[in-house]
Amino acid sequence: MRNSMPPVPPSEVKGAWFVTARRYVLREHGEAVFARYLASAPEASRAALEDPVVSHWYPEFVMRDALEAFFRVVAHRDADQFTAAIERCTVLGTHWFLQILVSVATPRYLLRLLPTALRQIRRGPVRMEVDVRERAATLRFSDHPNADHPCYRLATPAIMRAVLRLCVGPTARASLVESDATTQLVELAW
Hints:
This protein is an alpha+beta fold. It contains seven helices and seven strands, in the order βααβααααβββαββ.
């Protein structure tokens, strides 16, 4: 009996993160580190990392390769340096006007917009559900092809913490509390 389910579309990400990572590495670490970052990535991903287009859709493996190269070269394989740099990239990649809007929004409003925002920078099977409570929230990412990859396990809470910090300031906290092959559960508090 043939499966009548349509095939799952591949996961893709917009070039915005690659543009921001390029800008961050060049600004904070210089051309020599950027060259090592590129050389550290698999050849199939190098062009996207070297000269990314913000509006272009890239296969998920390019994001994975970028995070791995970033971890190895930029963060020197140090989890704390990696998460701090990912947080800085998140803020750097957020347009100043959007930062102003986020700073006056309530956390509840901001967090309820995240699933829509995710669809603007990612297409394919990845989904996000948000459960907002008083001064806390749970984000559930499902159908993610790299949910349990070590770099994604560090990057996801770092990105969410940086976004929430734009809204509530330094009290923002984000922790990955569960992860398996396709799902991540992130707890936020402020």
